[in-house]
Amino acid sequence: MTSMLNAYNVYEDRCPTRLLLDRLADKWALLILDRLQEGPVRFNRLRRDIKGISQKVLSQTLKKLERDGLVTRAVFATVPVTVEYSLTPLGQTLNETVSAFAHWAERNMDAVLAAQRAYDEAGAA
Amino acid sequence: MTSMLNAYNVYEDRCPTRLLLDRLADKWALLILDRLQEGPVRFNRLRRDIKGISQKVLSQTLKKLERDGLVTRAVFATVPVTVEYSLTPLGQTLNETVSAFAHWAERNMDAVLAAQRAYDEAGAA
DNA sequence: CGGTATCCAACAAGATACTG
DNA sequence: CAGTATCTTGTTGGATACCG
């Protein structure tokens, strides 16, 4: 047999995977997921490490990732309170993909910059 | 030796990789790159296959991907004109990552939906 | 420390109409 | 077929201020 009825398809407009893809295909979400691969991290540590992220966006993104079951939030009753974020097992299944994305950008930046220059020069001619 | 000076770092605010990550971490860009893995595709075919994408967004996204050196645009002087988009060798190096993303969403949608329900129920309590 | 609430400017994107 | 141009709305995200 070829396969069962395919329930989900990202190419379909109304498929719920579209919403999920939209949430994950986000610069901040990817950086958070990538950073959490090294283990549990506190809120303000994430804020410092992911340079340029605002408190609001960090908070919002973490909440969405938590709702999607990718991230766990653990509260410790210290004074002042300590909050640690970690990847769930589900979240960890994205590790390789997330890393690949970030590393790709770093490794191929020069090639992309060269392509941009070539494109812009051709357009200017 | 451990490594050379790391020129690029996505965790840095001003790093050019941030701009690149922002462009690639996009639902439409990912779907386009994924669709192009099967070979050259014409404009309106992409438009039909990636359901819900507007002509404007498709055009804009393709132009950015072309400028970044990930996609090539080939024009054939038929009547009316035919335009084919393909992945460049650079663009093809992203194939696995892009596929992983889309497939992840499709494979784990049920788990995510379950997590969302659990989260929402807990919040309602 | 770890957030929330509010305001606001900027940008993205959908709809629509038109063109070589 | 393969776009561009324009308009208008909706959403994002930065800045700021405040709270348990």
From TrEMBL, chains A, B:
Domain HTH hxlR-type: 15-113
Any matching Pfam family: HxlR
Name of the molecule in the record: HxlR family transcriptional regulator
Gene3D superfamilies on file: Winged helix-like DNA-binding domain superfamily/Winged helix DNA-binding domain
Keywords noted in UniProt: DNA-binding, Transcription, Transcription regulation
